[in-house]
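Entry for the shared binder. Reason: the reviewer on the internal report wants the predicted structure included alongside the sequence.
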Amino acid sequence: MQRINFQNYTGKFTLKDPEKNSYLYFPIANEIGVMSSLTPTLNGDCKMNQNTFLLAPVSSEDLHNNKSSRNFWIYVEGKTAWSVTGVSSQQQSKVFSKEKEETEIECSIMCHKVIRTSKEMGLKSEIINFVPNGYKVELMKVTITNISEEDINITPTAAIPLYCRSADNIRDHRHVTSLLHRIETINSGVIVKPTLTFDERGHKINEIVYGVIAVDEDKSMPISFSPIVEEFIGEGGSFENPESIMLNKEFNVKSGEKFEGYESIGALRFKNEKMKPNESKSYIIAFGYGESVDDFEKLTSTLLKETDFEELLKDTKLYWENKINLKYSTGDSTFNNWMHWVNFQPILRRIYGCSFLPHHDYGKGGRGWRDLWQDCLALLAMDPKEVREMLLNNFAGVRFDGSNATIIGANLGEFIADRNNITRVWMDHGAWPFLTTNLYINQSGDINFLLEKQSYFKDLQTVRGTDKDNLWSIEQGNKLLTKENNIYLGTILEHILVQHLTAFYDVGENNNMRLRGADWNDALDMAKEKGESVAFTALYSGNLVNICELLKKIKNENKIKHVEMAEEIEVLLFKNNIYDYPQEKINILNTYCKSCNHDIKGRTSEIDIDLLVKDLEEKANWIKNHINSKEWITNSEGYSWYNGYYDNSGKKVEGDFESGTRMMLTGQVFTIMSNIATEKQVKEIVKAADSYLYDKEVGGYRLNTNFKELKTDLGRMFGFAYGSKENGAVFSHMTIMYANALYQRGFVKEGFKVIDALYKHCINFEVSKIYPGIPEYISSKGRGMYHYLTGSASWLILTVLTEMFGVKGSYGDMKLDPKLLLSQFDEDNKASISLVFSDRKFKVEYINELHKDFGEYKIQEIFINNETYEFDNLNTIDKNI
């Protein structure tokens, strides 16, 4: 039985026989652009962006199918060749036999080690891979040990296949782009500089140099090279069975030679070694990117030293550990370690975007609008000092019609006009910025952030994606202008109000907000005419209530009675007599959108805060009453829950149908979270979800029941196999948000059940087959899918921190409201969390001396640095302490 074994309290783990799993991969990267993925046999890729791949790009299916992997060969005199990564054809044939070599991986944050022992060859290998900070390279150290009782003569060869071009060229001009390669051997390795780049940007002069360099532990350089793939593998050979290695042929290429127009490989031959019993020999390899050959010459004299390698490895480990400011201590040490990896996932997504790991082969890199805001949720817990600037810059992506840019630039606050003129609006996008901003303000107390000013995004799309501004041109730039051609700047509060007010009026015939191109569930993408999202209508309602609380706080703290707002926005206010009439709402929205189709007047009005609060509360209450009167359903079996959607025929999606009961989780999450559901209704929802959606075998709560229909009037998800991705899988993101909503409403045992089921499934390697962390979803067979790059990690961190441990911000003060179950305390009756709050490091430790469960205990005493602290009945610690 394979299982993850944690070695310490910072997530370090080991796993035996990892190569018996075909889809495992591990991320190693840095913050200057190098992004790599590794399998237990060192397959995977290395890249800096979509157009700069050093190693050939891989999807999940390539992990077991692709032979073009990192390798290091040892030819043993009198025997045969041995791959230290285990990918020779001979080794592969023994994976399922009793002669299988002993293997084990040992992983810590951004560091991958694999240990392989071959009794047949009398050799043991240890390979360490990591990406050092500040360098555009991946480092690899190979250590070979003679475990036999006799001397062994070996011929060592590093073999790193070099791709050196855009991911698009895997199929598009694969051979033609190899003709661009200019290959050169230097003392320490093989360098490739393509003459041109062939990709969607056109044919351009290439400025990037790729290369592989290496030395042995004595700083000795390779003695010869085989830089051309077809010569390295030989006719009839392959990367798993290369002729030059299997026959131990001499490499005839020396330093200083040049070649043109071939597929290339960094095949570096070292001098023969005679190894005595128990003797070890190490080789250090670097492969990466530079601007010239000189860059690799310099790296040879700096990085390729054993002392430097070890120092860089130590520094890299420490660097990433310092990035994770959250530490947990409960009665379940495995949970504590698992959460350490969950903590790291939002950092990984900031680096990799949503497309640069093997399962994320559906895009070309970058992050989406939601990702910008949800990743900040975790950063607020781990590295809050950076968040203010990020939030302020992110608001520059909001359009004045309440929609937003969908192409995110590489730089902070950079948004790009859609060059393909694709008109698509996700109706949920306007809700996320406020959720993150509200958390930031409560954590920091920075209420004046709402009064900061920012520009609006401008491009061809107008009227929330239904029209075009034919007066706009890309030369004008991506900033909304006034009629005097000045860039208009509005407050962050104004941006938030624009997003929520436009959404309020953008309704369908059933008077819920239109689904548009999709909501959070991107696969609900085929109901843009008549589809409606009751689920996110509920979330916008909850946001409106919380916006009112912030407005009251601004008024009281700043002693002001009015807020500034663009004149055009007034048409969206104070219209409560038409809320029951969908067409009247749509007319108001169209009037507003046409007023800002190309530019705006640039004049502002002073809006009375009390009147604004009254108006927003009326809108929120109207939504709440509407959903409760129109969308609460009870089926023939007596279960009750909320209908979450309308399809493109304008019909309810959930309830009793000929094919069976139809229920979706999303509509339950946001009605609970936004306080639309009463306590009694929450209990009913839990019963229904437990009956129709809960499946312990696949990790807990499915996203929906089986509709048994290719529902083309709702979304592509129904074309997916049931139990996969958005169609009925346990989709971690919404599952965790369900837990969060339950915790918020005081349904703690129910919320814990949600998290515990998913956690225990993920950590059960025999079923989930993933390294520690939370995947995007669980497949119908129980495998974790789309690992690491998922917004569910941010929501899980937020839930564990603010709900489970109950460490919350209240306008900069720290509020303690623990919702820990008795079973979560350790043997000393303690549970703790370490975090950064208000730029200070805290360890919050709860001591449950009387063994009370949640609902039975309350905080009796608070000690700060061993001194008693007087606190109010809200368990709040003043930010000035």
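Summary line for the report: DSSP finds 21 helices and 50 strands in the chain.
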